[in-house]
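Me: I'm a chemist; would you kindly supply a protein sequence with its structure tokens?

Assistant:
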Amino acid sequence: MPFDVAKMSGKWKFDSFSDNYPQVMDKMGVPSDRFEKVRATEFPLDISLQGNVMTSKLVYLGKTIENSLTMGEEGEENDTSGKKRMVTYTLEGDCLVSVYPDHDGKGLPVHTSRHFVDDDTIRMTIKAGDVEGWALIKRC
């Protein structure tokens, strides 16, 4: 079944992580104190796909982040830390995939794949360089 982008709209919270998920976040430059805040935060997400343009609005730790990107084409994305990064989003079977060829400005590739476990759970697998981990997020 293809990934339903609009089904991601709603309020989400991190539920569980692989044992090495903090190392994945560290590799991506996410400070440990920020990671702890993320673990306890609910975040509303509004996302849609019109044709091949994906539009998202995320409220995260008091900031609103909006992006509009064309599927299959590299584009600039505003991230939760306030940085802009180049990324390509694609739909690959039952997954929404994002590829950042240079996540940290030093050549670190990051690949994230998201798929629905059920209507209220998304599993994200993140590979940052040579470190890979996963997280489950649950609908609130």
